[in-house]
Design brief:
Elements (H helix, E strand, L loop, with lengths): L3 H17 L12 E4 L8 H6 L4 E4 L6 E4 L12 E4 L2 E4 L13 E7 L2 H4 L10 E6 L1
Parallel strand pairs: 4-7
Antiparallel strand pairs: 1-6, 2-3, 4-5, 6-7
Length: about 130
């Protein structure tokens, strides 16, 4: 029923990760991250994005800049493209920051190159799709 060798191996890996301070969470660039928000939630878009793995957020409020880890170069990072209800608004500071938290229904972060290819050069730094009520 239980494979003792596999259990010991997993336990050993768990000990190694926990003692080194590393986390064993799975984050790949080939996945979509969806964040569903209850309609009565009062969580800003920026705070919702802070929960998404793989995003780098510099600054706060209207001046925040959002980058996708691993896609851009270190010297010239490209901001994530925001699309609200199918309309491209550009970077976070150009319109996505003005959304009311109660309006946000779903936030989806596109990281997969085949998903962001449809948005061309504008989406080369990653894409965040925001659906409102």
């Amino acid at each position: 029923m239980f494979d003792l060798k596999k259990i010991i191996t997993l336990f050993t890996l768990l000990l190694i990760f926990s003692s080194s301070g590393c986390s064993a969470t799975k984050t790949t660039t080939n996945e979509k991250v969806k964040v569903e928000t209850p309609s009565n939630a009062n969580i800003s878009l920026l705070d919702q994005l802070r929960r998404s793995p793989g995003l780098i957020i510099r600054g706060s409020g209207q001046n925040a800049q959002i980058f996708l880890r691993g896609i851009s170069s270190i010297n010239s990072p490209k901001e994530v493209l925001f699309i609200i209800n199918g309309t491209q608004v550009g970077s976070f500071s150009r319109g996505a920051s003005s959304l009311s938290p109660q309006e946000i229904k779903r936030v989806e972060v596109l990281k997969n190159p085949s998903d962001i290819a449809a948005y061309g050069i504008m989406g080369s730094g990653g894409v965040v799709l925001v659906t409102t009520l």
